[in-house]
Design brief:
Distance between the termini: 23 Å
Strand order of the largest sheet: 3-2-1-4-5-6-7
CATH superfamily: NAD(P)-binding Rossmann-like Domain
Structural class: alpha/beta
Helix content: 40-55%
CATH topology: Rossmann fold
Largest sheet: 7 strands, parallel
Number of domains: 1
């Protein structure tokens, strides 16, 4: 699909977890297509560097979304520069490996907070803006819950919940003009993911996919641009899987 560079001109896009990996690609792509992009991340050095490289259409906001109570303040900072939020991309996540046999309640709650709770309260803080502008929401989850992968059950539980909440929120807020969808990528090879990438893991993943190549951040950003644009005006409450046919 070919997008005109000005497709998001005048639209304020808020992206969580925008400094690295998929998030940084989302920031770059929305800016390159005319959007004014605010992005929240706790990686201060990388966030400032990315915003400096892009220029005036990128607004980096330091924040730790684990601290749920701070979310309304972070969004107010975004609005100080670019005004009402028109498009929300919930991207922030943490896929730390862990075992259900030894994870503590505190660790579980921490993982659920960053992978799920902040998604809820970021959306809550943007609802009025999104209604007033017939906005778009794209929640980034993962195909891991569809595959039933081991080694990070809290992450699976959170991502299954994101798809469920996407459907639920669409029923409530679709009638108010908000398109709400989610994307469930497969194994996207970012810098972080390279620590788990080796010949064996690569062969196993590609062997289960119909398309014999790894998924890239660009694959995810292309789908996100589509769901955030008017081209997807009739799509709501859906989870689009981008994993090369692995599920």
């Amino acid at each position: 699909m070919i997008f005109v560079n000005s497709i998001f001109k005048g639209r304020h896009v808020l992206i969580t977890g925008g400094a690295n990996g998929i998030g940084s690609e989302l920031v770059k792509q929305f800016c390159s297509h005319g959007g004014n992009v605010s992005f929240i991340d706790k990686d201060n050095a990388t966030g400032e560097k990315l915003a400096g490289e892009i220029g005036v259409t990128a607004n980096y906001i330091y924040g730790d979304l684990y601290e749920t109570e701070s979310i309304p303040c972070l969004i107010d900072k975004a609005k100080e520069k670019f005004g009402l939020i028109n498009i929300l991309i919930n991207n922030a996540a943490l896929d730390e490996r862990h075992s259900i046999t030894d994870i503590s309640p505190r660790e579980w709650n921490c993982l659920m907070s960053i992978n799920l709770t902040q998604v809820v309260f970021t959306f809550q803080s943007c609802i009025d803006d999104l209604i007033s502008s017939s906005g778009k929401v794209v929640n980034i989850s993962s195909n891991c819950f569809l595959l039933g992968l081991a080694d990070y059950p809290a992450y699976l539980a959170a991502n299954a919940s994101i798809s469920a909440l996407t459907k639920s929120f669409s029923r409530e807020f679709g009638p108010k003009g908000i398109n709400i969808n989610s994307i469930a990528p497969g194994w996207v090879i970012t810098e972080r993911q390279k620590k788990w990438l080796n010949i064996e893991s690569s062969r196993k993943c590609l062997g289960e996919q119909s398309l014999k190549r790894h998924i890239t951040p660009e694959d995810v950003s292309s789908a996100c641009l589509y769901l955030a644009s008017n081209a997807s005006a009739a799509i709501c409450g859906q989870t689009i899987v981008i994993d090369g046919g692995r599920v």
